[in-house]
Here is the input.
Amino acid sequence: MPRILSLWGKIRAMEVRLYSNSSRPGVGLKPRRESQRPLLPQHARHCPVLEAGSALGLLVYPPLEPNESFHIEYEGEGRYQLTYFFNTEGAKWEPVFTVAIVLPIGSIGMMKEEVYFANKTPPISRDTALGVMRALVVPEDLGTPPGAISLRGATNFKTPAGWDTVYTAIFNMIERPVAPMLVVRVETDWYAHETEFRYVLQPGEGIHGAHNMPIGQAFFVPREEVRLAECTPEELAAIQTSREEFFHHKASSKIMTPYGLEYSPHYLRESRSRNTGPDG
Here is the structure.
């Protein structure tokens, strides 16, 4: 028992430090845990393992103020276009500038960045516009592979010794179309990694970014090696007994919702009771 309590204390003490996007410090929502997905069917609300999967780690947001948004599109053949929008006094979204990015053919030559302003008297300079673009995406990552873009997060992570950060698409977002993403795992206990989410678009596809729209999900894993071993006959017997007891309790605790959906809260109750710490 003392060893279990000691391990529990270590788990609860695991702390991840946060620091801002280096180009726009302090801008954007903080990462947060969210177990629900608004577009999932209603019955998903009563599936604790689904919600636990959605809540794994933290949702990460772009470095945008509430009155800012952007849209980046892959036009094909190494051409990308990012448009930055601004909402003046809540009236409507107005484009401020567009950056057209053209990658060199065959990796020979220089990347071209052309800035086009929506008004004849732009409120910012060309260099400022390029700086905003670089705070939102990583131009050097465009096109690797073709159609790839890297979206920057508002927040970066520093993990404890021996822990890594995994950067993924948002779990359980089932609405179509969903752009595929390259999942990366970074040793953020020693490497100062700027949070990036690497999506891959088809020609004509784009991604919209807004203050309250997460662009990806990050979670933390220990770097210790996992060893696999076969269960012993005694362990298999215990697993079978546990399975039978679980389904017996599940069947005896079913609830009918007002919408006619039958479900059992047994797994959720058991999970909560087992994950309650020694201090209650």
User: Anything to note?
Assistant: DSSP finds five helices and 16 strands in the chain.
